[in-house]
Amino acid sequence: MHNGFERPEWDEYFMLQAKLASLRSNCVTRSVGAVIVRDHRQLATGYNGTPPGIKNCFEGGCQRCKDRMDGKIKSGEGLERCVCNHAEANAIMHCAILGIEAGAKGAILYSTFVPCLECTKMAITIGIKKFVCLDEYSETNYDLIKEAGVEIKILNNESINKWTGKMIATKE
């Protein structure tokens, strides 16, 4: 047995996968990644951005995001105008596209942010009972999450940063 050996806990491991998914985001205002997991197996990933076949957000595909970047609207305003899908919604839709029953048997949604109201409703509908997240989100409905009996666990960013640092560190 090697005394110096360590590896990420499961929640850290899957949050690293969500962070990795966020790198695919094409949104100009916020990069979010999500992973749905059951029995320590990744079922689906998602990141926020425009739907397939639509001009990417960073290419001007979402006027609402452009307006936010230009300072014409504040964070949380005009969400109904945004054409980007959220990371959590994309992960849920990919389960549907692939015919995966995500919510059964205690699936967990890992997301770099606590889901918004719409994504929370979708997650509750498919039966997800636990969210593991890194950061809060202003458009979250905590009363709905509590009423649905969904557990929220907020991970420490420093523990995730430790592992990302290990990934990029060079070994001699």
Individual helix count: 6
Any idea what the shape is?
globular
Classification by helices and strands: alpha/beta
Q: Tell me the span between the first and last alpha carbons.
A: 22 Å
Provide mean pLDDT, rounded.
90
Question: Widest sheet: strand order?
Answer: 2-1-3-4-5
Order of helices and strands: HEEHHEHEHEH
Taken as a percent bin, the fraction of beta residues is 15-25%
Helix share bin: 25-40%
Could you please describe the fold and organization of this structure?
The model has no long low-confidence stretch (mean pLDDT 90). A five-stranded mixed β-sheet has the order 2-1-3-4-5. The protein has helices spanning 10-22, 63-69, 87-98, 117-126, 142-147, 157-168, and strands spanning 33-38, 41-47, 108-113, 130-135, 151-154. Helix content is 35%, strand content 17%. By secondary structure, the chain is of the alpha/beta class. The protein is globular, with a radius of gyration of 17 Å. α1 packs across α6.
Structure in a nutshell:
With 172 residues, this protein is an alpha/beta fold. Helix content is 35%, strand content 17%.
